[in-house]
Design goal:
Layout: H1 13-16, H2 24-33, E1 56-61, E2 69-70, E3 78-79, E4 85-89, E5 91-92, E6 99-103, E7 109-114, E8 122-123, E9 130-131, E10 137-141, E11 143-144, E12 151-155, E13 161-166, E14 173-174, E15 181-182, E16 188-192, E17 194-195, E18 202-206, E19 212-217, E20 231-232, E21 238-242, E22 252-256, E23 262-267, E24 275-277, E25 282-283, E26 289-295, E27 303-307, E28 313-318, E29 326-329, E30 334-335, E31 341-348, E32 355-359, E33 365-370, E34 379-380, E35 387-388, E36 394-398, E37 400-401, E38 408-412, E39 426-427, E40 432-436, E41 445-448, E42 451-452, E43 455-459, E44 462-466, E45 476-479, E46 484-486, E47 492-493
Parallel strand pairs: 39-47
Antiparallel strand pairs: 1-38, 2-5, 3-4, 4-6, 6-7, 8-11, 9-10, 10-12, 12-13, 14-17, 15-16, 16-18, 18-19, 20-21, 21-22, 22-23, 24-26, 25-26, 26-27, 27-28, 29-31, 30-31, 31-32, 32-33, 34-37, 35-36, 36-38, 40-44, 41-42, 41-45, 43-44, 45-46
């Protein structure tokens, strides 16, 4: 298995001179929770075999300084109510222990918080942030905290920071890899890769005020050491790809209730069937979920897979089949408003610096862009999928590259239309929903599946609307002076 981390890919002489080493403690964690990882040497691919179909624009270069982070690790950006994008870096900041940052679509970056580490603060965050219905962001750090095993935190868009939970492997989890997700019950659910009574990791629930509880304990039989956060399906179940364990020790998918009852399990078969799933699942309108495995496939360099609610898995694409194709895909995929899934590969492409690609739900795969860091320190090694901004553009980060080789923020224009978004696409009649968008000043109407709603415009980038009486499940529409904007997803009316 190829596992990309803030040290060089062992065996890759091409990249080793350009990458920085992770803290020794992080290396030991990697060894303990991903002991099955295998590393391969990536070949330099022929640029003439790979046609560039799209242009990626760098909008910010990280510089590893007190005013800038470094090495965003497995981070998918999230958009806030002010239109800026928020994320985390593994390194950099005032204390060289990672940061929480914001960046505007135009590339103006600001550090909201620099982690201090030690026993009183977190250190080395991975995976980015989750937007809550309160407009605040929620995330985790890999290390730091009272037991040096990570924390859960929240932070306001202006930088007010609160530690919600310190992990303690003797009584709960340890070493979380990403932020918890917001579920339809208003609580947050996440995973820790270690900890728990059997030290195999767990699923936890936490409220916005910090009330923490254990939901499910992982084990060798059903999978352990999860990297991916849960995904809540339309049926209410939590679906979680698990990196290791299972019948073949190549990872699993578990389906559990929010109460922690295991309903179903899938075992990745290794080889052509994929192995080591690291990214979360994303559900499409057809009801199926899509994601990636970082290893396996017919070429041993990762897969795209589709999984039904009954946990039947189909491999849609095996990476590395052709010269110029990406290898070792990033953690999961983005479902964009055109109905296609977008993501990245950490390696491969014309320059072996990673790629961007998309795929239809039926598996039609297209290489979009090949990163190139070989001569001019542009972007390199994206480890997570991009996010789609409400202006329609895609925004993502790379772990390395840029003028200081500390990572970049990039944008990709696929010509997709603007839309409106919200933190949670479900609610009851009478509830207030915060909608994110662009050019909202002067909004004339908001409807929930055709039912007119009362609303209040708070800024050019967000408004609030009240779910109207008699509203039914369907799209939200916001009529502005410029256009009628559709919601990114169907809004579900809860009983």
């Amino acid at each position: 298995m190829q596992f990309s981390c803030p040290e060089e890919f062992p065996g890759s002489q091409k990249k080793s001179a350009r990458r920085k080493s992770a803290p020794t403690s992080m290396k030991s964690i990697m060894k303990s929770i991903l002991s099955a990882t295998l590393f391969v040497t990536a070949a330099v691919l022929c640029a003439a075999m790979f046609a560039q179909a799209q242009t990626v624009t760098t909008i910010y270069n990280f510089t590893d300084s007190p005013t800038s982070g470094a090495n965003p690790w497995y981070v998918t950006l999230v958009q806030g109510t002010n239109g800026s994008f928020y994320g985390t870096t593994y390194n950099g900041g005032k204390n060289v222990s990672g940061t929480i940052f914001s960046v505007t679509p135009g590339g103006q970056q600001k550090i909201l918080y620099s982690f201090a580490g030690g026993t009183t603060d977190g250190a080395y965050p991975t995976g980015g942030l989750t937007l809550g219905t309160d407009g605040n962001f929620y995330g985790t750090t890999q290390q730091g905290g009272s037991q040096s095993e990570g924390i859960i935190f929240k932070i306001t868009p202006t930088g007010t920071y609160t530690i919600l939970h310190n992990f303690n492997s003797f009584i709960d989890g340890a070493f979380p890899w990403g932020p918890p997700i917001l579920a339809s019950d208003g609580n947050f659910y996440g995973t820790s890769s270690g900890g728990g009574p059997n030290d195999r990791g767990l699923v936890y629930k936490i409220t916005s005020s910090g009330t923490f509880s254990e939901v499910y304990r992982f084990d060798v039989t059903h999978g352990y050491s999860p990297i991916a956060p849960p995904t809540q399906g339309a049926d209410g179940f939590l679906y979680i790809p698990v990196a290791q364990g299972g019948t073949y020790f190549c990872g699993t998918i578990v389906q559990i209730s929010t109460a922690g009852v295991l309903n179903n399990t899938y075992d990745f078969p290794c080889g052509p069937g994929g192995s080591f799933p690291l990214g979360p699942l994303v559900q499409a309108e057809n009801g199926d979920f899509y994601s990636t495995t970082q290893d396996g496939g017919t070429n041993g360099e990762g897969t795209i897979y589709q999984v039904t609610t009954g946990l039947a898995v189909t491999i849609l694409h095996s990476f590395g089949a052709d010269f110029g194709d990406g290898t070792f895909p990033a953690a999961g995929m983005l479902l964009a408003t055109d109905g296609n899934y977008y993501s990245a590969t950490a390696e491969g492409g014309a320059n072996d610096d990673g790629t961007l690609f998309n795929t239809t739900t039926s598996g039609t795969y297209t290489s979009l862009y090949s990163f190139n860091n070989s001569t001019n320190l542009l972007q390199m090694s994206p480890l997570a999928p991009p996010v789609q901004g409400t202006n329609g553009l895609l925004y993502g980060v790379t772990e390395f590259g840029g003028g200081a080789n500390d990572g970049t923020v990039y944008s990709l224009n696929m010509g997709l239309a603007a839309f409106v978004n919200t933190a949670l696409f479900s609610g009851k009649e009478g509830e207030t929903v915060t909608l994110l968008g662009t050019h909202l000043t002067g909004t004339k109407a908001v409807t929930f599946n055709g039912s007119a709603a009362n609303f209040k415009v708070l800024s050019d980038t967000h408004l609030t609307a009240t779910v109207p009486p008699g509203a039914t499940t369907g799209p939200i529409e916001v009529t502005t002076p410029r256009a009628t904007l559709q919601s990114r997803k169907t809004f579900v009316i809860k009983p």
